[in-house]
Write a structure and sequence with these properties.
The chain has 234 residues and is α/β, with parallel strands linked by helices. It has a single domain, classed as Flavodoxin domain (Rossmann fold). The longest helix is centred in the C-terminal third of the chain and has 21 residues. Strands 2-1-3-6-7 form a 5-stranded parallel sheet, sandwiched between helices. It contains 8 helices and 7 strands. The chain is globular and about 60 Å long.
Length: 234
């Protein structure tokens, strides 16, 4: 199995997304997968210009000559595509550019599936599953809904399986609880192993990764107190 992962965090390997992604990919490697990781910020990916050259003029070919020309062949050879991103409003800019530039992978033949216009990947694309790894700073899992929908909708648009989402809310609190951090990162590793070996991630592992570390009320009070104290200092 070939796995291609893209980390869209602006902080790259120093961010919370990388902290969650690293054991996940390690688990996939231990299951025998070949893993390649790109950082969207480190790539030179220009925005899509909306010319639809890849759709109407030369299907499957992007005329923009930048780092995506190196990534497209890797994507064609991947069996699993892992999108890793923190929650911004909703995505970091580099990650949004990367996603928009995936259009050349899609065959320009439309069909209707479950009441929606959809397409599929070109026949040269091997990707069969997409998984999401995401971290956010707010307390509730509902904060992931927009990012989750983007990943799920893309999978439906190209007619492949959405393999699930590894989600870690209030991720910054892991630094204050080493015992829970160890448990959660081990569950992330097991989820990666399971996805590569068995093709799915169990509900129990995903819930372990997403478990609350503090009550919702205590979390909000904690963050509000930080802001109030900053105002006093300022």
């Amino acid at each position: 199995m070939n796995v291609l992962a893209v980390n869209g965090s602006a902080r790259m390997e120093n961010g919370y997304t990388a902290m969650l992604l690293a054991p996940f990919l390690e688990g996939m490697k231990e299951a025998g997968a070949q893993v390649e990781l790109f950082y969207a910020r480190r790539l030179n990916v220009n925005p899509c210009t909306g010319e639809f050259y890849c759709w109407y003029e030369k299907p499957g070919e992007c005329y923009i000559r930048d780092s995506m020309q190196l990534v497209y062949p890797r994507l064609r050879e991947a069996d699993v595509f892992v999108l890793a991103t923190p929650v911004y409003i909703p995505l970091p800019g580099e990650m949004q550019n990367f996603l928009n530039r995936l259009c050349p992978l899609i065959e320009p033949i439309l069909s209707k599936r479950n009441g929606r216009t959809r397409a599929k990947f070109h026949g040269t694309i091997r990707i069969k599953k997409i998984a999401l790894v995401s971290a956010c700073g707010w307390w509730e899992k509902g904060n992931f809904l927009t990012v989750l929908r983007i990943a799920e909708e893309f999978a439906r648009d190209v007619n492949i399986e959405f393999a699930g989402a590894l989600l870690r809310p209030h991720v910054q609190l892991l630094a204050k609880n080493e015992e829970k951090k160890k448990e959660i990162l081990e569950a992330a590793k097991q989820a990666g192993f399971q996805l590569a070996k068995d093709g799915f991630m169990s509900k129990n592992l995903l819930e372990t990764v997403a478990q609350p570390l503090i009550s919702e009320e205590a979390f909000r009070q904690r963050d509000n107190d930080v802001y109030v104290n900053l105002k006093r200092v300022g």
